[in-house]
Amino acid sequence: MKKNPYQIVKHQHVTEKSQVLEGLKNATSNISLTRCKSPKYVFIVDPTANKNEIARAVEEIYSAQKVKVVAVNTINVKAKARRVRGRLGMKKSFKKAVVTLQDGDSLDVV
């Protein structure tokens, strides 16, 4: 059964680290950073999705901007123990995908 691309890619993951990854394409301060020409974006994805499904879903969602996915790296983030009012609980686990686009491509996310 074919999944809807919006079921595979849930939303973009915006953190300080993901903003640094997005900004690497414009970095000129360090010689090793100037080699990073491909933009990278981080998404929260379905835990059962594989890399090919994630790449196809991102290209389909952003088809108006004609982006081409070069690589997908996935990370399974484990659940963490949290305490709320003295009681032990768990924070949900999730799957992240770091999507590398072709040189010159960009996602205009508002």
Structure, described:
It contains 3 helices and 6 strands, in the order αβαβαββββ. By secondary structure, it is of the alpha+beta class. The strands form 2 sheets. The protein has a 4-stranded antiparallel sheet with strand order 1-2-6-3, with helices on both faces. The longest helix has 11 residues, at 51-61.
Q: Could you outline the blueprint of secondary structure elements for this entry?
A:
Blueprint: H1 5-8, E1 9-12, H2 16-23, E2 40-45, H3 51-61, E3 69-77, E4 80-84, E5 87-91, E6 94-101
Antiparallel strand pairs: 1-2, 2-6, 3-6, 4-5
Number of helices: 3
Q: What structural class results from the helix and strand content?
A: alpha+beta
**Helical percentage:** 10-25%
Task: Output the helix-strand order.
Answer: HEHEHEEEE
* Count of DSSP strands: 6
Within the largest sheet, what's the order of strands? 1-2-6-3
- Note the beta-strand portion: 25-35%
Q: Overall mean pLDDT score?
A: 87
**Overall morphology:** flat
Radius of gyration: 16 Å
Task: Sketch the major β-sheet.
Answer: 4 strands, antiparallel
Uncertain spans:
none
End-to-end gap: 32 Å
What descriptive keywords fit this protein?
110 residues; alpha+beta; 3 helices; flat; two-stranded antiparallel ribbon; 21% helix; four-stranded antiparallel β-sheet
